[in-house]
């Protein structure tokens, strides 16, 4: 009998979990985001938008690009959660370091303006290369790219942008033009006039024929009358008399005989300076504690000095108004208009030049309520009246006369208003609200009772005014035109036509119809001066080239040119007593254009 064989039961083996393969990192969305950024930027640059729209569109595009990339990257399961947290923490820390340790000219806005697009593009390229490699290599590569791209912002300084929003960038350790100027002053004892020191000649100054006493000359129209200059600049180019460094500012000049007045920044101080017009030697300087700077225009005062009755009136970028003795620079009175109006400095600083009329000096303060324009009494600086305006303006008060009635025009983001200069009472207005829109160019009276004014958003507008027996006025819009859109470049008028720069191109527009006659000559965002007797335009380009153009509606004709100064030039040039004075934020120069009048041989 056989013995039964014992059957063994099978013992179940433990299940070993099989790791699921990590999803493959698909990088095409990153490439799409990077390509979309550059397509959007190229489109923005080609669109015919105003400068502010171009700037903010670029900033928004950059910000959205960065945000889209972050959302995509941190939703990828192909990267371990730990790696995504490390990358996010690194981005936050690196951004904070750039903001805190970077040059002030960069700041959050500079980082947003350019950083995300560059970083996303570099990251997309890296992901294309490394997409099949380990997640550790991918993560470390992204960290290196973040350090390299964000590190650049720690190492550079932004020296502002030009009219087309192209930034000027230099190594952070490189000395600025202002640094070199201040060092030069410190090392040259003869150049460093003690602050607020009086010159030897203290005789009261008076206005004489051929002087240039105001912003843009007589009645602020940018015109020169009674003067003719040689125009064959190939045979006899303008003769350089002197050229030297100057502190940053976008101010123009006052010229009184052999005295030249302007404004500049000197470190922590805003300065009003008087130079010998024949040599550039400093005669006196008045300093105020205060410094304003922004990432686009840089540091320094924005407005221009004004002369009246032996005194120089100025307004600094921080809102300080000075009344100084023109001969000595001695302060007669000073007011903080921004503080009195309860206003903050506009994004690009206080830029309006004071207007002196009827024993008052009128300045723009931009305060709430009726604290837009302030009128101080010239004799003691006491406030005479104030008037409401829009909260943002970079234009200056403009004096006009209709028959026997004098009015002050002012352009802001609310539109154009007319004020009685004696009382501050509003006489009429043209409403054109565009909140926070910069409006810079001066209004221009033409044909007796018509006003031309404009800005990038408005184009050019002609108002025809009609007075009534009850003291009221009617404004009629004769036409609106996009044929000329003045940015921060003032236009000039002659014989029924206006000449100005539109996105860097010189234009001629018929003031009866608003139609453009021609648009030629690339001068950037420079400035124009009309030599009325010769029907010539003197144009100084955005980068310092001086050019003569015939002021005719028939065709564009350039008749001469020379390199006057170097660097971004937004300042208004001046021609007085046969001399051209040109400056920007780095240098100032004087050229002989024509033989001086005999009376200019004596300094007054």
Tell me what you see in this structure:
This protein has 604 residues and is α+β, with helices and mostly antiparallel strands. The chain has a domain at 28-171. It has seven helices and 37 strands. The radius of gyration is 31 Å and the shape is globular. The relative contact order is 0.10. Residues 598-604 have low confidence and may be disordered.
Please describe the topology of this protein.
Blueprint (H helix, E strand, L loop, with lengths): L27 H19 L4 H23 L7 H21 L5 H24 L4 H21 E6 L5 E5 L5 H11 L35 E2 L14 E7 L8 E3 L2 E8 L2 E8 L5 E8 L3 E2 L3 E2 L6 E3 L2 E5 L4 E6 L5 E6 H5 L13 E3 L2 E5 L8 E5 L5 E5 L10 E5 L2 E8 L2 E5 L6 E6 L12 E3 L3 E6 L3 E9 L5 E9 L10 E3 L2 E6 L2 E6 L5 E7 L4 E5 L4 E5 L4 E6 L7 E6 L10 E3 L2 E5 L3 E6 L12
Parallel strand pairs: 3-31
Antiparallel strand pairs: 1-2, 4-37, 5-6, 6-7, 7-8, 9-10, 11-12, 12-13, 13-14, 15-16, 16-17, 17-18, 19-20, 20-21, 21-22, 23-24, 24-25, 25-26, 27-28, 28-29, 29-30, 31-32, 32-33, 33-34, 35-36, 36-37
Helix pairs in contact: 1-2, 1-4, 2-4, 3-5, 4-5
